[in-house]
Amino acid sequence: MTERDCYLSVMENNGESTLHPSPEEARASLENVRRMEADLADRLVTPWWYYPGLGLVEALFITSMTFPAWLGLPAVALGLAGLGLLVRTWQRLTGLGLSLQYSALAPGWIIALVGTYLSAIVVVLLADQAVVTAVVAIVVFAATVPLGRGADNAMRYRLRHGTRTR
Q: 166 lies in a domain?
């Protein structure tokens, strides 16, 4: 009997009853999951330059909102290219793909990151002043670095210590 046989549903077994794993098999399976999560935590290391780069891209997006269209569109295109470069380089270095499942491991940090960015957009749209936009862009950059690193630390901690959101 293989491990897979223990976990097939009734539908996958053509209506036959499924077998339940023994306590030893269950413990071994859980230990295997813990090892895989620890391995993932070791691989989920973001390079030091990733969040400063992301902060710069976000600041560019924020400031481009006040540019004339002839300058704003190329700025957004440059920001999207920078974002793509950051993500592809991170994926190449870690061997991992981006997934919202990682975000579920650090919801408070991710909400703070997204909330900061969305609040910045609202402030820039309401204020519509160059000085306010510049200050908001600096705040977004400055907030992205510690919030992003905090999210990374929280994700790795939860993977290593088995605290799950599932």
A: no
